[in-house]
Automatic annotation (TrEMBL):
Residues 171-223 are annotated as: Disordered. Residues 198-216 have a biased composition (Basic and acidic residues). It comes from the Bacteria. Residues 171-196 have a biased composition (Low complexity). This is Lipoprotein.
Length: 330
């Protein structure tokens, strides 16, 4: 696989080797963050541009005593959930659908340091609020420093329940279809007895396939008109604007509330409008929890959750609208 091309397409971040200590996974180190999205940003779980970041999942035989970095995203989010008195559990298994190279999938599937840290996880906090985080591998490569260390690019993203269901249902369906097609195509070639594929064999095969590429494909000029990945601030603003528009028009109420929750889950992001978009998204969520039955019925204590959001906005951001809405609710 030409990983340089992948970087241009996927924007995988550079791993910071050994810079995260075990102490940083304690609940005390993350309890002051206002949202899981704020934790992701402040702890640099993704790359600076919000895209995937590389982590070492295998240091190789010479450095086998080192802990893999690939479990860091899951450990950080688990610690945050625990700090909120919550329960953190696997909601959807990963089929590694964002990996286009089949050898990458086979190789990563042999490492528990990858399998145990990917998929969609749900946290149900003690205050009744819940959130879902998706951690997905997008690329794999060998570290270019002469060592035997291998890297995996991980994309960590907060999702709504609907987004997670849609993504993982689609991913698993596509993965099953591809598996069936591969089985049919390879059936006639399986005349010799099956042999278990070890991680070493997969690595060796992948290295061999890479060496066969004797003629490098000339890189095509970058088309600036191609779709540019949105920043976290743009994604948050987009969700907020859609939510406000639909709620004010009275259309697509559930979708509007999902967008409001998605925008609020990003937390307070850096930027001139970061605080305003965050606080106003919170106001929309509170409105959904108290005035949109088709949305609030999903929650056991929707009014209590609305009050907590409004208290956060009133106490931490001195939001006049939140204070007024609290008086109306009480």
């Amino acid at each position: 696989m030409n990983f340089r091309t992948f970087i241009l397409m996927g924007g995988v971040g550079i791993a910071l080797h050994g810079c995260t200590s075990i102490d940083s996974f304690s609940s005390d180190s993350v309890k002051n963050f206002n949202s899981p999205q704020e934790l992701i940003v402040q702890k640099n779980i993704n790359a600076a541009n919000g895209r995937a970041k590389e982590y070492v999942y295998s240091w190789g035989p010479k450095q086998s005593n080192k802990d893999p970095q690939s479990l860091y995203p899951r450990k950080h989010l688990n610690s945050y959930c625990s700090a909120k008195g919550g329960k953190f559990s696997l909601l959807h298994k990963s089929s590694m659908s964002l990996l286009k190279n089949q050898w990458d999938k086979k190789l990563l599937s042999t490492y528990s340091s990858v399998k145990q840290g990917i998929g969609a996880y749900k946290c149900v906090q003690s205050d009744g609020q819940s959130w879902i985080v998706s951690i997905e591998p997008v690329a794999e490569r060998k570290l270019d420093d002469g060592s035997e260390a291998r890297m995996v690019g991980l994309q960590t993203k907060i999702m709504t329940a609907w987004d997670a269901q849609k993504f993982y249902s689609s991913a698993n369906s596509s993965n099953n279809s591809a598996a069936k097609k591969t089985t049919v195509n390879n059936q006639s070639a399986k005349n010799s007895k099956n042999k278990a594929v070890t991680s070493k064999e997969v690595e060796a095969k992948k290295e061999l396939e890479t060496k066969k590429e004797t003629k490098p494909t000339p890189e095509l000029p970058v088309k600036h008109s191609a779709q540019v990945a949105e920043t976290l601030q743009q994604q948050q603003l987009k969700s907020y604007v859609a939510a406000r528009r639909d709620l004010n028009s009275g259309k697509n109420q559930v979708a509007a509330c999902n967008n409001a929750q998605r925008a609020y889950n990003y937390g307070k992001l850096q930027g001139t409008d970061g605080t305003k978009v965050y606080t106003e998204s919170g106001m929309l969520v509170a409105r959904c929890l108290t005035n949109v039955p088709s949305y609030s019925s999903r929650f056991a204590n929707s009014k209590g959750q609305a009050v907590k959001i409004l208290q956060n906005l009133a106490n931490n951001y001195n939001h006049a609208g939140a204070k007024n809405m609290l008086r109306q609710i009480k």
